[in-house]
Design goal:
Layout lengths: L3 H5 L2 H5 L3 H18 L2 E4 L4 H14 L3 E7 L5 H13 L3 E6 L6 H4 L5 H20 L3 E3 L13 H7 L5 H4 L4 H10 L25 H16 L5 E6 L2 E6 L1 H8 L1 H13 L4 E4 L15 H4 L2
Parallel strand pairs: 1-2, 1-4, 2-3, 6-7
Antiparallel strand pairs: 5-6
Length: 293
């Protein structure tokens, strides 16, 4: 289990995890959600959206519905986790099909791919909101996300989706700590992203490629690794593993097992990235102009 020290990072960030400072932010979040009266939550089951769905349940009970995209780009294990968390906490939850793979702009996998994914999700949620009389849609972006390149935030603005975690001033570390205090087992869940994010920009995302990545990642997880990514580069696979776990992967026996797994999936070359896992590594080659768009 990851320690709070590792999650918090610097002494300054750890100081901010003082419960006396955090609880007013949680109260502010609940107040914001209560004021919305009826809410649809874009819910992946990750740390942020799970905490948001839990807070909405606390604020307005069954007037909050968590909505999960039933898309090939979301690992089946993540969908199961989302379903189990919602059941455990009595959160109304629905899976809805999304059709981003029918959009050529999404399949092309340009740097704005995430915009088209979120645009499709929020389009479907807009329809549900209109049909059922929900005035508000919310999603789990936090204050740390605002400085990253995330085209999905543009889709949220287009659809007038609200970000109550940001409005309450909550960072990722604070959400983890409040989740821990509230007994949510998602508090230390590894960072997650859709499977399409494993494919470099300019290489088409297809259900077939997504399936290969998903199978590979499930087998890496079965080896005991916790935080990692499988990056697809045509006939080459680049495996990023968190630095604190990297020594295990560099063991010859484990390296041989990784080679076996990925060659059986059709890759000719199996590589370990010596920089280890880092979030959004495929954004590293983007120009500053694109990042700021």
């Amino acid at each position: 289990m990851a320690s709070l020290v590792a999650i918090a990072g610097t002494a300054e960030s750890k100081a901010k995890l003082d419960p006396a400072l955090l609880l007013p932010k949680q109260e502010r979040l609940v107040e914001l959600l209560r004021g919305m009266k009826r809410v649809l939550i874009a819910y992946s089951g990750g740390t942020d959206s799970a905490y948001l769905a839990w807070a909405a349940k606390l604020a307005i009970g069954d007037e909050a519905i968590a909505i999960t995209a039933d898309s090939p780009s979301i690992p089946e294990s993540h969908k199961r986790d989302a379903l189990e968390f919602a059941r455990a906490h009595g959160i109304r939850h629905e899976m809805i099909p999304t059709l981003e793979f029918e959009n050529p702009d999404y399949v092309a996998n340009n740097p704005d791919r995430c915009f088209h994914c979120k645009d499709e999700l929020f389009r479907v949620m807009d329809q549900i909101a209109s049909q059922r009389g929900f005035e508000h849609i919310v999603y789990g972006v936090n204050v740390d996300d605002l400085g990253d390149y995330r085209p999905g935030q543009s889709a949220a603005k287009l659809h007038q989706v609200k970000s109550p975690l940001v409005d309450a001033g909550l960072s990722k570390a604070e959400i983890r700590e409040l989740s821990r205090q509230s007994g949510l087992d998602t508090w230390d869940r590894p960072a997650a992203a859709c499977l399409s994010s494993r494919i470099p920009y300019g290489t088409a995302v297809t259900p077939e490629r997504i399936q290969v990545i998903e199978v590979g990642e499930e087998q890496v997880k079965a080896l005991g690794f916790r935080q990692f990514r499988v990056r697809y580069h045509e006939k080459l696979v680049r495996i990023e593993i968190a630095r604190e776990e990297l020594a295990k992967a560099l063991n010859l026996e484990c390296a041989g097992e990784l080679t076996r797994i990925f060659k059986s999936l059709g890759f000719h070359y199996v590589t370990l990235d010596l920089e280890g896992y880092r979030q959004g590594s495929l954004n590293e080659g983007l120009s500053e102009k694109i990042r700021q768009s």
